[in-house]
Amino acid sequence: MVTVLAGSNSFLVHTELDKLITSFVVMHGDMALERLDCEESTYERIAEAVQSLPFLASKKLVILYSPSANKQFIEQAEALLADISEVTDIVLVEPKLDKRTSYYKWLKKHTEFKDFAELDGPSLANWAVDFAKEQDAELSISDANYLVERLGTNQQHLSNEIKKLILVDKKIIRDTIDSLTEPTPQSKIFDLLDAAFDGNTKKALLLYKEQRNMKVEPQEILAMIGWQLRQVSLAKTAGTKHDIVHEAKISPYSASKAKAIASHLTLQRLKELVYDLIKIDARSKRESIDLDEALQSYILRIS
To answer: What's domain 2-115's architecture?
Structure first.
């Protein structure tokens, strides 16, 4: 049997791969497990691994990492994989597949093809709820949305943090999340804008300085403010929170925060803020300006 684990979501790909390997080793032992990095291996070595019979085991599992990086393998894949022994299982780990190629189309038709795409905010929250459940823990969907917004979209990081939270309590709640996790810069930028639009200049500038102390560069902060203003703009023009979630591919928690900020702004004021940020970005790329000073002045203007 040939299984393909494709897609850019490396966390889900390797989680599925670990399950396949664990299941195989329990049944047949690790002597019959072979792994090859196809970017480093010759086609002859790959073909040998695929075609040879298991040694001292009833079955063999061959893991081929990025086989499409080997041009000769792509050319010979159909003939090679169509003629493997019944006692050999093949897993192709393909993070970057060109869907236009005949190789991709053949794999889709003739193998057990599993595609793992990156998850957006709402999908990540649902995944976090399910992941906690797999660990015999409880995480509500609202707190899962909050967790994703606070920690970002890296699933490996999220899974590690969820496991850490479970060590404290099997029921993960927002207070525990706040006390045991560190928010990502993106999350803090929303807090910064929130404070600025509330007129809390002192808090907004403090949050800005915190980001700089954490070695977040001004250009990154500018980009994050731009991203947050995009969400606020969608919140201002979209009909409902559901529309914002659907259009912006963000969590309901983020959509609620964006809608709250948007409610305090006229459309004209929002356009002015976006335009001013674009001007700062353009100036920073063609002139030698103090971007730190420009961004702090911008925050003062918001407040």
So the answer is: 3-Layer(aba) Sandwich (3.40)
